[in-house]
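User: I'm writing a tutorial on reading structure tokens. Could you give me a worked example: one chain, its sequence, then its tokens, then a sentence or two explaining what the tokens reveal?
Assistant: Sure. Here is the example chain.
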Amino acid sequence: MNAALAPIGFAVFAWWIGTGLVFIAERAVRGRAVAALALILATGALSIGGVLQSSVGTGPGAAYLGFASSIGLWGALELSFLTGLVTGPRQQPCVPDCRGWRHFGHAVMALLYHELALLLCGLAVAAICWNQPNPAAACTYTLLWVMRESAKLNLFLGVRNTAVELLPQRLVHLGSYFGKRRANALLPLSIAAAALADGALIRHAISTVATPQEAITGLLLAALLALAIVEHIVLVLPIRPDALWTWATRRNASAPPPGDTGAATRRRADPEVARTVPAAP
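And here are its predicted structure tokens:
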């Protein structure tokens, strides 16, 4: 049991502190594209270096390094998105009454460049780890990508807690692509599938056939997947989505309520409204 606590604690800490650091970094480089790009490239380069080094390792330390390196790379990609450097060709809210596949196509175009960046980086990590003794980095990145795509689909289909208030002002138009409802049919399926995968990871990690490296990697991934399941559950709970990161987000008390995605548009269109409608975070 004690041996299992270290990787689980490490995964929880990396998820919590990593998410908070992305929020802090976005605020620190806001409005400074050159500084943002430099930070993103430096973090990405260090993370790729960690992936390279970890992939040839054969001990528990290599599992931790591979896991942390993929978390770092993912954080750099998230920062590129939040700073607006890598988003998509569609930079405006979806048109009113847009529905169905047309609405889905608009949503894809709003995120297209970022989705391609995520995919290309994932392929690069997979190529680095291919036929190497330690696939921890590739497994971690794949898990992050699958669960993030699941979360995006659920946000598109509609959930109660869209967390649109956490979007920087430059991305507030993305709120128009989030569905707003208590839940959707995909969400329970996403949670159930993730829970089954989590159980399989835990069973392998604690099995007698698992090497120490495989056991550490399995527990790291199981903890990360459990956190992703919690994030999916939060989508339908009436709680603040940044409750664990208030130290990093510093939300404006006067920010528009969740779902008020037209606030920024109204400010730009009408100077009188601009004096009465608060800015998005």
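What the tokens reveal: The radius of gyration is 20 Å. Residues 266 and 273 are 6 Å apart (CA to CA).
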